[in-house]
Amino acid sequence: NQQPTTNKKMLNQRLKIAECVFIVGSIIGWVGTVASNQILYGVVPLSIALVLNLVNRLRFEQQIKRRITAAIAQLHRQLSQEHQVLSQQQVQEAIASLQAKLPEYLSQV
């Protein structure tokens, strides 16, 4: 189970590195654009950097959604357990109360 997490971390790291590389490439490309009047040198790396940024952001959002969903599920389980314990305590208290009053009720019969 550890392997998929490691692979995801490596992929995330690679995407971040690629994004940084293309941002640097776009800066260098813009310098080349100014020097050679070839806009392609600046546009292509910048476009790729923007796409990588979008991919990273979407992956991050999915990761956050999974974590939030897991946290909500855990809270729901805890709440259900607490409710069950509370219900059992109330039933036990009611039984104890009835058992304590049983001799009194029997004496009235």
Give the topology, please.
Layout: H1 2-36, H2 40-108
Structure description:
By secondary structure, the chain is mainly alpha-helical. It has one domain (2-108). It has helices at 2-36, 40-108. Helix 1 runs antiparallel to helix 2. The model has no long low-confidence stretch (mean pLDDT 85).
Oligomer: single chain
Q: If you compute it from the alpha carbons, what radius of gyration comes out, rounded to the nearest whole angstrom?
A: 32 Å
Distance between the termini: 66 Å
Order of helices and strands: HH
> What sort of overall outline do the alpha carbons produce when their principal axes are compared?
rod-shaped
Helix content: over 70%
Please identify the structural class as seen in this structure: mainly alpha
Number of domains: 1
Number of strands: 0
Number of helices: 2
Low-confidence segments, ≥5 residues, pLDDT <50?
none
- Strand content is under 5%
Described by strand count, sense and barrel closure, the largest sheet is: none
Q: What do the pLDDT scores average to?
A: 85
Search tags:
single chain; about 110 residues; about 95% helix; mainly alpha; 2 helices
Summary?
This protein is mostly helical. The chain has two helices and no strands.
